[in-house]
């Protein structure tokens, strides 16, 4: 790859990263069109760089391209949501199990605890403000921090992409705070189990947590959703 190509590719990654962050934060909602001229001007990039960045997000299943219509933030259907939960169970519970076996992560001391506690606190502050977008973003960060316990850069990258796509599922919530609040308390239970060194128990608790979250969310996804 030439120096010019590297710069273009790097710029496209920055574009994808910025739009991805907006999706995760809830600033950009599923189903919304991404008007290319507005986004290009906002990010200060060329049309070709924007297009390359958007195509990266298409490959990550965050954006869809419709001929003659443009780029849209993807809307998840029931099969998407069910599959994402299946993948999350494998990755998140597996990461905790690896951490418990000493697979490169750490579940002792305070370093690993800081990110988890920060996620809990951010969720609580957002809940007090009745800011469900903030609660959702804090939940995403909490689960990313759980996987980080395994100490694997590849798992970190994998869960970041999975959770970004999963964030799209929240569009199906009519009363999102009611959905999220019970799980905020479960984050506290998970951290307490980990702090006590009960990593296997935490992994099983997380497995049950994800199953209950899956059932509650699928109740909200229309059967006809695509």
UniProtKB/TrEMBL annotation:
<dbReference type="Pfam" id="PF07729">
    <property type="entry name" value="FCD"/>
</dbReference>
<feature type="domain" description="HTH gntR-type">
    <location>
        <begin position="9"/>
        <end position="76"/>
    </location>
</feature>
<keyword id="KW-0238">DNA-binding</keyword>
<protein>
    <submittedName>
        <fullName>GntR family transcriptional regulator</fullName>
    </submittedName>
</protein>
<dbReference type="InterPro" id="IPR036390">
    <property type="entry name" value="WH_DNA-bd_sf"/>
</dbReference>
<dbReference type="InterPro" id="IPR011711">
    <property type="entry name" value="GntR_C"/>
</dbReference>
<dbReference type="InterPro" id="IPR000524">
    <property type="entry name" value="Tscrpt_reg_HTH_GntR"/>
</dbReference>
<keyword id="KW-0805">Transcription regulation</keyword>
<dbReference type="Pfam" id="PF00392">
    <property type="entry name" value="GntR"/>
</dbReference>
<keyword id="KW-0804">Transcription</keyword>
<dbReference type="InterPro" id="IPR008920">
    <property type="entry name" value="TF_FadR/GntR_C"/>
</dbReference>
<dbReference type="InterPro" id="IPR036388">
    <property type="entry name" value="WH-like_DNA-bd_sf"/>
</dbReference>
């Amino acid at each position: 790859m030439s120096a010019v190509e590297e710069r273009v590719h790097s710029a496209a990654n920055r574009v994808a990263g910025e739009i991805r962050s907006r999706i995760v934060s809830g600033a950009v909602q599923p189903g919304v069109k991404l008007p290319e001229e507005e986004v290009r001007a906002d990010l200060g990039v060329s049309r070709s760089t924007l297009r390359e960045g958007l195509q990266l997000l298409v490959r990550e299943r965050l954006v869809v391209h419709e001929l003659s219509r443009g780029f849209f933030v993807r809307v998840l259907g029931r099969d998407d949501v069910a599959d994402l939960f299946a993948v999350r169970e494998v990755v998140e519970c597996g990461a905790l199990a690896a951490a418990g076996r000493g697979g490169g992560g750490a579940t002792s001391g305070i370093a690993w605890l800081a990110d988890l506690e920060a996620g809990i606190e951010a969720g609580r502050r957002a809940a007090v403000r009745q800011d469900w977008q903030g609660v959702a973003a804090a939940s995403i960060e909490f689960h990313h921090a759980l996987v980080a316990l395994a100490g694997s850069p590849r798992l970190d990258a994998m869960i970041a992409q999975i959770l970004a796509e999963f964030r799209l599922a929240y569009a199906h919530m009519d009363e999102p705070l009611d959905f999220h609040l019970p799980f905020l308390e479960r984050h506290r239970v998970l951290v307490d189990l980990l702090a006590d060194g009960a990593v296997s128990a935490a992994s099983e608790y997380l497995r049950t947590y994800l199953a209950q979250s899956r059932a509650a969310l699928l109740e909200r996804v229309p059967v006809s959703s695509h």
